[in-house]
Input
Amino acid sequence: MTNMMRSSLLMGGLLGLGMVSLFAQGLQEWPERHLSTAEVEQHIRFLSADELGGRQPGHPGHAIAARYIATSFQAMGVQPLPGLQDYYQPIPMGRMVPPRAGHIRWGKQEWAQGGDLLSMSGEGIEGEFPAVFVGYGWIGDSTDDYAGLDLMGKVAIALQGLPEPMSPGKIIAAGRKKAAWAAERGALALIELYTLPYPWKRLMLNFTSPAPRVLPETEDTRLFHAWLNDPEEYLLRAFKEDTSVTLAVATETVRQNRFTAPNVVGVIPGRDSSLREEYVLLSAHYDHVGTGGDGPDTIYNGARDNAIGIAGLLAAARSLSEAPPRRSIILLACTAEEMGMLGSQWFVDHSPLPLSQLVYNLNYDGAGYNDRTAFTVLGYERTGIRPLIDRTAQWAHLNIIADPMPEQNLFDRSDNVSFAAAGLPCLSFSPGITEMDETILAHYHQPSDEADGLHFDYLRQLSSAFVHLARLIADQAARPFWQPDDPYYEAGRALYAD
Ligand SMILES: [Zn+2]
Output
């Protein structure tokens, strides 16, 4: 036996069982204490490099980022999750190609494509058609807005969304359902009257600029579906005054360029045989918004948003596979967060394991930082893990910024909200941010969000804290749960009800 063999056997023994108990006794520091700043910097510099072109789904840089994360998982000893394609959960998506022309006319009023008409999907139609107002066009437990209406060969006009406030992503998803219902009833088109609290002109820029919109594949109804901006409410008034409204319509077919983009997923089995079937889900999104604009720099590198978070996820991959906690860990690098949290929602809707086996979601996302003495948590008091957050801060020598800017409801603005809505208790972790000041806005969703100028030693400290908090949650005997007054409390009860 050579000395080298002897020492590697010794190491093997330590890594297998011995070290865990040394950690547990506090005689040995956890691996997340010894993260390498150079490695954290490597992840961030690679993912935010110009060559990755802003990591927009459907573009080569996005696929390269996914491959980087998957191969890093493999090198760090993270396993693929059974039921997926290796480390990938591919998601079918489409990039809308907006038509150049099209209009809807009623009397003297005209709404034209690119002006106050936005064609969303389906086949173009041409002719004079009777229109039917269908309210919200919704079918719920106790409502059917289509009851008693004849839509055959007609254009359905609906209010956008639902009476209760909804996120833009939900409104878009609701619109697709409405289009399917209208199609089933023989309608030729569904026109939704725009009501989002977002300036129509800016919305149009989003849909017509070179930056494409990404949509999940749906049951492909060929019904023509569009949004129409009618602030003067000409159409609504027309229906009030006259039930037989006829529209002159000439629209073009909306084409979709289809592609897939993956969530990247791995698992670290827990070390406690009685808790191993329970999973703590760690998530961070790896997509960003691609390229655009006409300045000298057109690449939105997304170093802060969210290469930093992926560096934290990879720190978890390394540290938690070296010394696994009691519960199992799922590592999820989400695609298409910037397009409305499509990747995390897809994971919820197509989970490779029962969602009730997940006990917590710890998400890492951010806009940047303006306080390097702290980490930020969104949801500090909401799931009963405040003592673990406090211990983590102490351990990492960082302060806590709890729920800054409450008026912005940041908790509901990253991937954790997909899991929260499914009932899973969660927390979003971010770099230290006190307010959306000039330091943050200078880089937030700007081409200047680059790796140069970042404080990598601080980012290593943040990664350590993120991993350590994950460890404490995964080791704690009790499962965290929503506070009784939380808006997601009932969803949580439903998720874990037998
Ligand atoms: Zn983000």
